[in-house]
Each structure stands twice: as C-alpha cells, then as structure tokens.
Design goal:
Length: 388
Amino acid sequence: MNVPIARTSLTEEEIQSVLAPLRSGWLVQGPKVREFEELWSAFTGAKHSIAVTSCTTALHLSLAALGFGPGDEAIVPAFTWIATANVVEHLGGKVVFCDIDLNTFNLDVTQLAEKITSRTRVILPVHLFGLAADMEPIMQIARKNGLAVVEDAACGFGSRYRGQHVGTFGDTGCFSFHPRKAITTGEGGMITTGDDALAAKLRRLRDHGAAMTDLQRHLGARPYLLADHPDAGYNQRMTDIQAALGGAQMARAAEIVAERQRLAGIYDKEFSALGWLKTPAHIDGLTHGYQSYPCLFQPEIVSPASVVRINEARNNWMDRLQKAGISTRPATHAVHMLTFYREKYGLRSEDFPNAWAANDCSISLPLFHGMSDAEQRYVIQNVIETAI
Ligand SMILES: *Cc1c(COP(=O)(O)O)cnc(C)c1O
C-alpha cells in the first residue's frame, strides 16, 4: 500500500466550480474573489479578508502596508517554513530569530522580550502545523513595546485560541491555500485584519496601488475611466478561478476541520503508550487544526548531546517507512540552519537548540481529508513495527 504525506480531496462540485469564471470571462479578482473573502470572514470572524496569491505574498504585503523597511527588525521563530523569514529580507529588514518551545513547536514566549531592540518593528508568530502560538503574552509584549504583530497562520485553518480563530489577534493574519494546507486553491493566500485603514491599504497594494478595484470600476457609472493610484503597489491578486475553488470548499469548512481532528484523535490514542514518539501537544484552551501531524522521535532524551544520533536514527526510520510505501517528512526546517541565514547572520545550529532538535528529530505522519481507515491502520501498524 502507498500512503502519501498528503492528498488533496476535492468534490466533483468543487472541481466543477472553476468552470463558471472560465465561462463568464471574468478571470481575475472579480465576484468570486469577493465571495470567497466574505465566506472567509464569516468562518474566521475576521472583519476584513483580502485574497492574494499566496501566504508568502500575504506576509510580504502585510509588512509593506505596515511600513516595514530597511533597517527594521522582525522577530521570527527559528523553526518555521522559510517564507516567514524571507519576506523580512525582501523588504530589506533584519531577521531576529527566537527559539521555540519543543512541546508545541511554537515561539517560546519566555525568550521573546529579550529579542526586542530599538529597531524592532514587528513580531511574526507562527501557528505551526495548526496549533495556535501563545497569543495573549505575545500581544501583551507587542503592545507594551509598540510593536506590530503579523500572524503567520498559513497552517491555521480551524485553529483557535480560547475559542477565537487565529489570524484575528494581530494587525494581520496570513493564510495559505497551498495543496499541503486544509483548503487549497493551488497557490493562494488570504490576509485578515480588523483595521479598516490597513484593509484599504492592503487592497490597494495587492492591485498596483489602485484606489478602486476593476470590479468597482465596472460596476460604477463610468467604467471606461481608469482608477487613480495613491500607492506604488504590487500585483498580488488572486484569480476568480482560484477563488471559485476556495469558496466552494468553504461549504464544508467545519467538516474539513472535524475530519482532520478525528484522524489525529485516532493517532493520539494508538500512539499514547509509545514513550519514544511524542505526539502533538494538547494545550488547554487551544483547538488544533492539524494541518499536519508532527511528532518528535525520542528513542532517548532529546538534547544537544543526543540530537545527531537521533537524527540518524530518524532518517533510517523514514527510509524503512518509505520502503513500506509510507511517506513522512521532517515537520519543517530550522531556518537558522539553512545556508542563506546561517551564512548571512553567522549562525550555528546550537544558537537555537530547540529549533535544531525539532529540525533533526521531528517526523510528520500522513494525515489528510479522505484518508481511509485501511490507510491509517497501515500507517499505525508500520509506525509501531518499524521504529526501533
Ligand atoms: C505553507 C507555509 C507558508 C507559505 O505559504 P505559501 O502559500 O506557499 O506561500 C508560510 N509559512 C508557513 C508556516 C507555512 O506552513
């Protein structure tokens, strides 16, 4: 049997949904984008939702709209997808890494305050793998120091912090619709914000800085006259083809989240007695969305002294699982260990020991909507039989 790490599952109706914009001739950021944004706001409780081309452009646009620029510093968790750090570089800023908590894989808030300098402008907490970062202390520290907060909620669909959907705490929240995420539009992203002026600026910046969208112009009295451009913006517009696909999936949003939670619950139960596999944390007040199912392989206590040994054992285990047809991945990467950041900032693995340990000892198991009982049983059996 072959079990992939993830598989997209679209209904026939969702697949058919892309035909309407193709037939209407309105392909780019039109009525379907507006509809998807409204559905997104309704589901997350955000005041404004602004569709863009990816989570990376959502993060980039958020920083640009907040006036982040050369010389400014942004605090980024050392264990995340590289895009969280890259957008800071794109705008000429400096990335200041903060280590993570190995229990949650999220920003260690006890180390946050000491990263702040006179140049710090923004904190970029990540709700990694669908578990919310500890937003209350993060927001407190940000307010006390006059810092902006841009939430990387790429994996945050269905993730809640004390009942409130992630992406609605900071100045903006940024979501991804890459096929590895719970809702997909191929490529795509969404920005959420509660700030009216910021929302207006984000809408202009994604669309060449235009004061009016094409849809507004076409619905207006003089559709043949062009808009003014108060900003030098970008082209980060989502297509109506993508938005039709995203909007169609929102009809079963609650079911998509519930199914991932059901599958994770079965893994939790089956693996609960295994001392050598630490399954995703359950934290009071947090609802996990399970974008993935990241575990820590711990055949011995994880520490700087054992990381290299465990890493080799983990990789060999991944080989055995792959031979059995089961795809796994390291949960994500420690960005400070990647060549660009290591060389530019002169960093060593041990500078952020928990991110290093997560990089070398984590393993994500297959979890996706549409995973059959037989597939999940096959994964469980092989995980238990092949690990040590
Ligand atoms: C997927 C992901 C991104 C990038 O999303 P794209 O839509 O592919 O640009 C950024 N941050 C995190 C944490 C992610 O998981």
